[in-house]
Fold this protein.
Amino acid sequence: MEVIRPADIQEAAAALAENPGAVPLAGGTDLMVEVNFGHIRPSAVITLRRVEEIQELSRRRIGAGVTFRDLETGDHRALAQLARTIGSPQIRAAGTIGGNIGTASPAGDSLPFLAGLDARIELRSAARGARLVPWDEFFIGVKQTSKRPDELITAVLLPEDLPDRQEFAKIGQRSAMVISIVAACVFRWRGGRTRVALGSVGPTPIRCRRAEDMISNERNPGESALDEFARIVSEEVRPITDHRGTEDYRRHSSGVLARRLLERCLAS
């Protein structure tokens, strides 16, 4: 297996264009599992650790090479919360948000955060330069994205109007190093506008837009409004039954979890 070590993003994009069978490698926490199980056999890997452009981190731009360890202490409360739940300290020190996005697993913990904020994914190729893809056009199926074979994921871009309150939580079969059965992010602005996004309850991240519309009209939601919010969230998700949980459990848990996160936002 050939190892290609570009020094910057232009070299990385050029290397991918010149080596169609190559696979980009940052932390490798997902890729090396696939290699070790024999699911993929790349002819070459393009290591991205030296590419400084994808390691930049600011409030509205998160480089694809930023690790979850770095995100644990970042500006975004929900992103920091989810980063702390990912794997072990060793995994968080290596794993990157770009890898989580590129894998596009339904259980990817960063994906509900991106969906709830209407994030855009920045991609770059040697032939076409950079382009921005809205999250709901990027994630198109289970471990499927609209990224083209010659493109690298370079960053996540967040909107200017960021929420005043944000919360993340997930449900799993144990309390540490857990793959989520249900994961959720809830965002609330001072005027009442609310966003809710969930993972592990559909082939891609799900925005519960009917629930958002309903609760955004409630400046001070009472018990009946919170119950209705939870009910609608449960209706909007599209879970399946697998070895981690049943469809019914995931549906019920989605509403319960979203309500609890909304209550946290309201109390803060």
About this structure: The longest helix spans residues 247-267. The first strand starts at residue 2 and ends at 4.
